[in-house]
Amino acid sequence: MGLFSRNKPQEEEKIEAAAERIIMKQMTDNEEAARDLVLEIKNGNPVCLNFKNLNEEVGNKYLAFFIGATVALDGRTTKINEYTYLFARREDFLDGSLKKWIDSIPR
Asked: How far apart are CA 44 and CA 68, in angstroms?
């Protein structure tokens, strides 16, 4: 290649919107599953969890666990309704798709 030749521009990878990566789960009393879900958050997959089927004590334990893990990952927790929360890294909110997804949920 000559000094002034141009390389073909590489095709940009299509980046999937954060809202398309949401993992939705009904939370159960399973510590291993909870750890796996935190790893999903860490890997850039927002997690939406419903705690309704857990008793109050167990539900609060897991909610505190996920909130703490999300804070440690420099993320945010968003309450969807009385029993449901979205956990995601700060950068997952940057494309705006999570806000649109949250705003589209009937209240």
From this structure: 16
Q: How far, rounded to the nearest angstrom, does the alpha carbon of residue 85 sit from its chain's CA centroid?
A: 10
What is the CATH number for 23? 3.30.110.150
In a domain, 9, yes or no: no
- 10 pLDDT tier (thresholds 50, 70, 90): very low
Cα distances (angstroms) measured from residue 95 to each of 2, 22, 85, 91: 39, 14, 19, 8
Amino acid at residue number 14: K
3-state secondary structure of 27: coil
pLDDT at 105 over 50: yes
The string of pLDDT tens digits covering residues 54-72 is 999 999 999 999 999 999 9
Range of the domain at 42: 19-103
